[in-house]
């Protein structure tokens, strides 16, 4: 039997729907405005106060950015961090998680305690900087990868996923003559693909958005990752000039609006991760529940 809605229920549904629509517009509008402004023709930008839909679309801002050596170099550095850093982080995190998930491993409990200690005590910024400096990694791209290879939280989460894999599969592989490394690569990793993809996405986003470590360890402008260069662009548009070419940058920015360059840079910095996620969504939905349910 279908229950009829009272006027109070209808009023609540309408008001609730209206508020959700307003909240959605408030979140979507900045993204929409950023994209639209990045494609706006420079001459139109100077003649209109608010541009919700440009009369003339243009790729001039993207051509200028992609033709700037400093910007392209920062994009390549961020791509290097997101690819190499993610692969190394997955290797270290997965290897350590698999090691402590093997019950016959000696000093397994000691290793677990050492990992748990990292939850309670952190070294702080000064010791971290001193370690990176003493290793000679200042102004090196590896200073943005090695200190961020893994974390105790990720190791324990991946260990929880490995613990859910039946031991009989590993024992059967060892009977067939597989070594521990073969068991890890041929049995554990294929069965843990959702977890690997989920953690890979976490690591990739973290490396792509590297900012704080970069401003601490990287002093040379031509070694800045994309997020640091973007922040400097938002504060000082002449950053794109690259030091000696600052006067050239100012001259070009008089022709090319600074705001359209900023918006185009934001779009370029955001799109890659947004394009990757839909392809990984299937595995990510499963991997996000790592260790939450045990059979």
Q: What brief labels describe this structure?
A:
mainly alpha, MetI-like fold, 2 domains, disordered C terminus, MetI-like_sf, membrane, cell membrane, transport, transmembrane helix
Concise structural overview:
The protein has 295 residues and is an all-alpha fold. It contains 14 helices and no strands. It folds into 2 domains: 7-60, no CATH class; 66-287, MetI-like fold, CATH 1.10.3720.10.
How would you describe this protein?
- Belongs to the binding-protein-dependent transport system permease family.
- Keywords: Cell membrane, Membrane, Transmembrane, Transmembrane helix, Transport.
- Its main location: membrane.
- It is a multi-pass membrane protein.
- With 295 residues, the chain is an all-alpha fold.
- It folds into two domains: 54 residues, no CATH class; 222 residues, MetI-like fold, CATH 1.10.3720.10.
- The protein is built from 14 helices and no strands.
- The two termini are 39 Å apart.
